[in-house]
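Why this split exists: single-chain examples teach little about how molecules sit against one another. For that reason, every record in the complexes split bundles all components of an assembly together and asks for one structure covering all of them. Below is a record exactly as it appears in the raw files.
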Amino acid sequence: MNETLKNNTAAAEVDTRETVLEVKDLVVQYVLKEATVEAVNDISFSLKEGEAIGLVGETGAGKTTTALAILNLVPDPPGVIQQGSISVCGNDMLNLDVKELQKIRGKDIAMIFQDPMTSLNPVLVVGEQIAESVRLHEDVTASQAFDRAIEMLELVGIPGARAHDYPHQFSGGMKQRVVIAIALACNPKILIADEPTTALDVTIQAQVLSMMNDLKEKFNTALVMITHDLGVVAKMCDKVAVMYAGRIIESGTLEDVYNTTLHPYTEGLFNSLPRINNKGSELKPIPGMMPDPTRLPKGCAFAERCKYATERCFEERPASRYVNETHTVACLRYDEPDFHIEGVED
Amino acid sequence: MADNIIEVKNLKKYFKTPHGTVHAVDDVSFNIERGKTLGVVGESGCGKSTLGRNIIRLQDPTAGQVIYDGQDITDLSNQQMKRMRHDLQIIFQDPYSSLNPRKTVMEIISEPILFNKLMKGSSKQDVEKRVRELMDTVGLAQRLINSYPHELDGGRRQRIGIARALSLNPKFIVCDEPVSALDVSIQAQVLNLLKDLQKEMGLTYMFITHDLSVVNYFSDDILVMYLGMVVEKAPAEVLFKNPIHPYTKALLSAILVPKVNGNPDHISLRGEVTSPINPPDECRFTRRCDYICDTCKAGTPPLIEIEPNHFVACHCVKPEGITLQRTVGV
Ligand SMILES: Nc1ncnc2c1ncn2[C@@H]1O[C@H](COP(=O)(O)OP(=O)(O)OP(=O)(O)O)[C@@H](O)[C@H]1O
Ligand SMILES: Nc1ncnc2c1ncn2[C@@H]1O[C@H](COP(=O)(O)OP(=O)(O)OP(=O)(O)O)[C@@H](O)[C@H]1O
Ligand code: SF4
Ligand code: SF4
Ligand SMILES: [Mg+2]
Ligand SMILES: [Mg+2]
């Protein structure tokens, strides 16, 4: 705790890094005939250059929708951005025309989509696919672009000679690297990676993640890492935002959230995981499941599953509060001065 | 003597393809003790599912033997196998695609019972009663009995798959990635359920997964596969404390733990997964191994017991001693 505080103050003194991404009060809904999906419900966060934030949460928590909104790519219809603002390197993403947006996407901000295998064109050699992205954003000749493609491939650990191969000639891990090469080809300031290694074997995941780490350091890229894997976040990120039913219920530095866990849901997530060093410990699942996003309860969305819930939790929606300069939590019980959760087992 | 419910002897399963013969499972031998769980890990395509399917005869092995409860079931006819089917069951990874979308929960769970004429002579009400019992056992609310799979979430769908597998009172269940598609909070619910069922019903599991923390939590013994072969087998604690095979070491070092500063550098493997098509007669890990030496290419290393119940297949690991010496990247 002391250490964290010290680090924070130290960071505050020297931190002259530019804020590259700012999401404010974002609300996104999918308006369907039968019902309205409340996918993202008032979330805010920001990211400085070189920083990495982990966006974690279970299926349907709104992670991908948040990412799409940042790029102004929410499918419309049925998606509607109801409220909020998004600034990418100073650009007001929600109020730009398509042409300007296209310039920013790829150049300032790039995204690795959740299902990368489908984002490669099967009938185009991978070198061309990388070159295409370069040509779109930079004033270069075709052969310069292809040279860059070869450079990028080598950067992600694939021999340049393989630029002439088709996607199906690569293994899953290699395809994923090609996707990363495309995303990084124009050296974006921000990279959004939506579950980039979920489909990969652990040894290949380790390779891909350390490569992403190297590139991030080399280019000082800011990273939004979307995942449900708390281990991936621990490896890659300095900040975390835990999402539940479209809200950020806890956020802070990695140390804040992992070492001083506050929210009952975050606690539940950690205690659901089998411990590698403590086989005897019992798994404590969170009972039940996330509420239907078309019928969110009026109180705390976690109340049905929360062992600390009181009557008030079913009536009132908790607001996010700061417990130190970096750590936020949205839970009503922290109104009680001596409330604390049982804690995460070691 | 160990009470083995399953004995696998020199099991092989090859697939002929236009590009050559896939050695999906290549000369694999091991036993599973009654009431225990054998975890099976290894990267995608190393033959885990094929192994599981061949053991319970959903596929016919190319060579080798499977002995269930003392009886060789490798050459049983389909008719004879039908009776065995009660005892040997499987739970699949994907609760989305392994269930027939046009059938109700009632129909899905009762199907094996009806197909195997398990309750011959019983009334429809009796079958429904049994289905409701099974739903209770796996923690599915009875009101869902007439629902369709698409109306349910992943955790509930996986519970249907489990209820269906349990419907014939099996003794041995192959669990093929049963929780991989589920969120962690739901995953823990299903893992606890499988553990409770094992205790209550004395089940034996073969638990296939690529999640190493799950396999450690769940298994008594762990089998590590690489390209169709077993490279290491040991009790779970031993394997995690003292992995010997270079592939096992790399695999375990790649685990990411959810702790601040909990993930020092991993052992990085060179290259990519090698193809299981017409593999040469040498250690299958040679192209990625950091310890490769002259002997590595001298045939496929046999699986040898280096300490009680700890088996390793590497030319540089012998009961007399381990001569693994890093030769690549030094
Ligand atoms: N095009 C769409 N039309 C209608 N509903 C949608 C659409 N896309 C997403 N949703 C819904 O919005 C909610 C949030 O979805 P989102 O994809 O953002 O979640 P996620 O956190 O990325 O989940 P996952 O971990 O499964 O990828 C979910 O309930 C989802 O079903
Ligand atoms: N019916 C088939 N015909 C041809 N090849 C097959 C067939 N079934 C499996 N294979 C091949 O056999 C090998 C082993 O496949 P298997 O599905 O058993 O692997 P696995 O370890 O279960 O992988 P995963 O973790 O991806 O499920 C793979 O190379 C696969 O492509
Ligand atoms: S507000 Fe109430 S229900 Fe929600 S997390 Fe806090 S204690 Fe639990
Ligand atoms: S036999 Fe050689 S190549 Fe194979 S695992 Fe042992 S040291 Fe590595
Ligand atoms: Mg998503
Ligand atoms: Mg499989």
